[in-house]
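Per reviewer request, we include the raw input and output of the structure prediction for the construct analysed in the revised manuscript.
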Amino acid sequence: MQKTSLETSLKGNSYPGRGIVIGKSPNGKYAVTAYFIMGRSVNSRNRIFVEEGEGIRTEAFDPAKLSDPSLVIYAPVRVLGNKTIVTNGDQTDTIYELMDKQQTFEQALRTREFEPDAPNYTPRISGILHIEDGQFNYAMSILKSNHGNPSQCNRYTFSYTNPLDGEGHFIHTYMGDGNPLPSFEGEPELVEILDDMEEFTNMLWGSLNEENKVSLFVRYIDIATGEYKTAIVNKNK
């Protein structure tokens, strides 16, 4: 797979929806993850990211405008020991709770499927970073309808052992804007990761469509120590 520019990919897609990036910094020091949300409706755009424990959650910016919390209010990021879970929905809690009971990432997600938001049937995308004894690996998952047919849930997991310095993968919910929204297809995109968290954060936020972007989370985790740095950017202020 040819490595693509994350900046170019984002600027060329007005509505990737929600997206997860996971990879390793070029200097080999950091495990890197990012998660962003976008929105077309008032309900989707009326959100911010706030820190909660070692993770984050979504929150209504203006509670009076929150019409339906079911698919927009959730914890996208939670930490379970040496594992960081990143998802686009409340399956974060499913993964956390079942992995805490010694089930695997895949087993946990087998209990879930795509979102019940016909006619889009938005895919559930998930990622997990595992850091132990100075080693880092990660996995990504997508649960999607069968080309828009909700009678079948297609499940794909992509695992990356001993990731290379400067490389990461990007998975998102939609191929682009549309009615209904076209679900992501294929393998996660191979993308470049940057050493500097501020530069990476600014590149991501600046590349997302200005009208549709809502919030961005970025975390750099020191592979040797497990210590991390976090950046959150919200359009609503």
